[in-house]
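Q: Convert this sequence to structure tokens.
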Amino acid sequence: MRVVVVIAALTRTLRLGAVFALVALPAGAGTVCAPEPVSPQAVSAAARLAIKLRDELERLQPRVAIVARAGADLSKHGLVYSHAGFVLRNHPLGRWRVVHELNHCGTERSELFVEGLINFFTDDPFELRALILVPKLALQRPIERELLQGLGRRLHEPRYNMIANPYSTRYQNSNQWLLEIIVSAESMFLAADNRGDAQRLLRWSKFTPDMIPISGAKQLAANLFRANVRFDDHSEESRRDGRFPVVSVRSIRRYLQASHQLAAMREIN
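A:
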């Protein structure tokens, strides 16, 4: 799976399917989107937040950290941040580059992207704020190595599902990809060369997913109108009860804390 490099910040050709944005199901959702210009005001605001983020990263000086954004309003679920990626201090394409998975325009596909900090915040976010999670150095090193040596591509599943089951390899969403990299990198006993390995490690770990309620009516509407939402990787019990386990930014933070792998956390707005 190739890694796409995004350099220009003035055209929004991607719509990130935020993991829980199921409250509204607009007509035409799931179709390929047309390029939409980003206003100068949006670019300016994204740049101000990106500068604050860069300055904080320069103070912390991690080799690699996790950076999250508030792409959708998840307050009804008690969540703030919808999407996360890795930020690398010394990426071959430049300093402080974000490596993350993005859903392509509401379709059933995703790709891996390398972006600058400004680009990371120009994708029509609900709120301009950021979260930095810095793993301990012993975990930063293998994450950096695996991202630069190709594990990120090997663990990428291009079949995208906004509410992908954390314990299934049928689909994947952005936060799930990131979590599988973390779990694989921290294992000293089994190198995860594929998603099956990563899933076995995840089942042995201290990860606890967030549970997101989705009614039967919304499940039906999503199946009919959204190419990037599927429920067939979840259990019959989840579909019947309308409660679905997902990988949220909060659950990733909780996992790092429970496994004693979180060295620092910062919020920026």
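The chain has one domain: 3-268.
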